[in-house]
Amino acid sequence: MPPTLLISGGRVLDPGQGIDKVVDLLIAKGKIAWIGAKGTAPNHPDLKTIDARNLVVCPGFVDLHCHLREPGFEDKETISTGTKAAARGGFTTVCCMPNTNPPLDSQASIDYVKKTAETEGIVQVLPIGCITKARQGKELTEMNELAEAGVIGFSDDGDPVASSRIMSLAMDYSQALCLPIIDHCEDKELSDGGFMNDGWVSARLGLKGMPEAAENIVVARDIALAQMTGARLHIAHVSTEDSVELIRRAKEKGIKVTAEVTPHHLTLTEERVMGSQLEKNNRLTYDTNAKVNPPLRTKEAIAALIKGLKDGTIDAIATDHAPHTLVDKMCEFGLAAFGISGLETALACLMGLVHSGQLDLRTMISKLTFEPARVIGTRYGELGTLKTGCRADVTLFDPNKEWIVDSREFASKGKNTPFDGYHFKGKVRMTVVAGQPVYKSE
Amino acid sequence: MRTVESSSGTATPDTFPPPSIAVWQHSHVLDLDDFTREEIELVFEIADAMAEVLTREVKKVPTLRGKTVVTLFCEPSTRTRASFELAAKNLSADTVSIDASKSSVAKGESLIDSLRTIQALGADIIVMRHSQSGAPYLAAQHVNSSIINAGDGWHAHPSQALLDLYTICRHLGKPDNLKIAIIGDIMHSRVARSNIWGMTTMGAKVVLCSPSTLLPRGLNDFIANCQLPKVSIENKIEPALENADVVMLLRLQMERQQSGLLPSLREYIQHYQLTTERLSLAKSNVLVMHPGPINEGIEISPEVAHGTQSVIEEQVTNGVAIRMALLYLIAGGKNK
C-alpha cells in the first residue's frame, strides 16, 4: 500500500481544474484524497508530510511521444532505464513509439511492453501501435486487436506512411476505434536523405538539407485526409511555422486534429549544429547531438511554435525522447543517428522560456498535463489532473533551482543531449506515481 | 623553427623562416574560414621558398626529417593524394598512405578508431580525405596529431583553395577587388566553399554561377549571415564572365544529371560551358582555372582548357609547393 502523504505549502497548479494557489494536498491509498488550506487536512494515522514550500505542485507530466527502445534496442534504452529517466523528468505517464524490433504491430508485442512495464517500469507506460505491418507503409496492422491490447493510438513514427491511399484507409479504420493516428510528417522523397534543416547553416557546412516544405506537405495531406475520413489526427513534433498555420486553420474548420511540439524545437535553432556557445576554442563543430528529425529550425519557427502553444493550436509538449548509444552519435555527422535524449531536460528547458517571459507557467504545465491527457482519452483513467479520487500522479518542482546539465548523471542510457553543460533554472524535486514517490532529488 | 636547407646543408634563402611566421596560429588546417589574411600571405611566402626547392635538381630538403605524415583517404583521389605525398617526401618526412576505401574503415571500423590507431603508430600529421562533411573536425576533436583536411564531403578543401589563390597572386598580384567567377556545381563543391572564405579574406569579389538546382537553397542567407558582401550569385554565365579577372570552372559530375538536377548535359553545355567566345567577355588577361579532374567538352571546351589563358597545369605544380608550406607550418607551428 502506498504511503499517506501530505504535500504541504506548495503552489498547487492544476490548469485542468483551474487551480493555482498555495494549498495542501493529501494523497492516500494511491489517490488524490483532499485539497485544502494549510493545517486543515483531515487527520490520518501514519501521515508523512512533505515540505513543498517554494515548489510547484502539479499533475504528473504526460509525454505523448518517447522511444523506450525495448524490445530490440536495449543498448540504447530499456523500459526500466527509460521510465527512470521519465521519473527524473517529472513524467508519470509516457507513451512509447512502436519503432522497436520487432515493431509494436501485434498484440504479442504490445503485451510484452505492457508486462515489462508493469514489472520494470516505475512510471506508467502506454504503448502506441504501428499503423502498418512492420512499419512498411503497405498493409494496415490489425488495429482492432491492437486497440484491445491497449494502444492509445497508431503511428509509424520515423517512417511516415508515404501512400496517401494507405493513410486514408488507416484513418477510416482507426476512426471507428476512436483512436488517433499519430504522424511524423515528412515527405521523405523531398527531404532526400538530408541531415539538418535546409538553410544557411547547411549551405555553410556542406550538409544536405531537409526543407521545411517536406513537413508542411505531409501536414497538409494528413489534414485533408482527416477531414475526408473524420478520423482523429495527431501531428507529432511540429517544427515549422507553416505547419502551425495549417493546424490552426484545420482546427477552425472543426477537423479533429491535435498537435505536439518538443522542448528542443522550442529552444534550439539550426545554428546549434555548428556547436554551442560553451565551446572555448570557438572552433566549428558538427555536433551530432543536435542532429534530430525533424531538424532544429530557425528563430522564426520558434516564435511561431510558441504562439501556437499559447493560442491553443498546439495542444501538447512531448519530448520525442530518442536515446542512442555513444557509438550511434560519436561519428561523422552524416552517419550519426537522429535523436535527442530529452526526458531529463524537458522541464528545465521549458522553464527557460518561462523565466524569459516567452511562456507562462500555467500554459507550460497545461501542455504537459491535462492537454496531452485529452489526446489519450480516459481508458487509462483520468490523467494529468489533481482531481480528488483520481490516481495520485504528482510532480513537484522547484522553478528557481539552478543546475548544470551533466549527461553522465542521466538515468537514461542515452547521453545524447545538446544541452550538456547548459546552465538551467528549474528542477524536478519529486515525482509521485499512484501515490508512490518514484523519484526524489536532494 | 627549422630552416629550409638544401640537402647539402646550405640554408636558402637567407631570410628563412620569415619573421612573419609569428602570425601562424593553427595546429590543424580544416578550412580557410579561420585564416587571417596575414596567415594566408605567410603560407604564400613559405610556398615561394618551397617552389624554389622544386626547381632544384635534387628536390628534397631535410626539414621534416623524422616526422611521420599519414595520408588517410576514405574516398578515391589521385591528384590531391599524390600532391600531398610528394610534398611530404620533398620535405623528407616518412609517409604512410592508407587507402581507406579498401581498409578496415570500409569494414565498419569507426573513423575515430582508425585515427587513434594511426596516432598510436606515431603520426605527427594526418592528411585526410573523407566523403562526409565535417569528418576532419571530428578527427581534430579526438586525436592529438595535426589534421590537414584534404577535402571533406561538400564542405571544404583548404589546400586546393590556397593553391588556387597562390596561382592567382603569382599572375595578378594582390587579389584585392579582382573579379573571380566560380562556375559550375556550387552545391556539391568543397572547392567553391573554401574559396569563398579564402578569396574574400584576400579582398577579391567572388561571383558564384550555377543553375539554380546546383546552388544550395540557403546560399543567400549564408552570404548575409556570414557577412560576405563581396560574394554574389548569378544564374547566367555571361554576366558572371563580364570583366572577370579569373574564371574557375568546377567539375560537373555525370550523376548530377542522372539524379534529375539537370535536364540534360546538352542543355548544360549550351548554357554553361566556357567557350572561347564566352571567354571573350572576360578581361583579356583573364586566368582560366579548374581544380580538376576536367570534363573536357562539358564544363569547359578543350580549346579553352588548353588555351593561352589556362593555368590549370600550373595549379597542379603550385599545389605541391602550397602543401609543402602547410606541412612545414603545421609541423613547426605546433606546441607553441
Question: Which terms summarize this structure?
Answer:
heterodimer; A: 442 residues; alpha/beta; Urease, subunit C, domain 1; TIM Barrel; 2 domains; eight-stranded mixed beta sheet; four-stranded parallel beta sheet; B: 336 residues; Rossmann fold; five-stranded parallel beta sheet; 9 strands; 39% helix; 14% strand
Number of strands of chain B: 9
At the fold tier of CATH, the topology name of the largest domain in chain A is TIM Barrel
Rg of chain B (CA only):
20 Å
Q: Count every helix of chain A, treating DSSP H or I runs of 4 or more residues as helices.
A: 14
Average pLDDT of chain B: 91
Count of runs of 4 or more consecutive helical residues of chain B: 13
The number of E-state strands of chain A comes to 17
**Largest sheet properties of chain A:** 8 strands, mixed
Shape of chain A: globular
| Beta-strand share of residues of chain B | 5-15%
Label the structural class of chain A.
alpha/beta
- Return the string of H and E elements of chain B: HEHEHEHEHEHEHEHEHHHEHH
Averaged pLDDT of chain A: 96
Just name the CATH architecture of the largest domain in chain B: 3-Layer(aba) Sandwich
Structural domain count of chain B: 2
Pairing-aware structural class of the strands and helices of chain B? Answer: alpha/beta
State the shape of chain B. globular
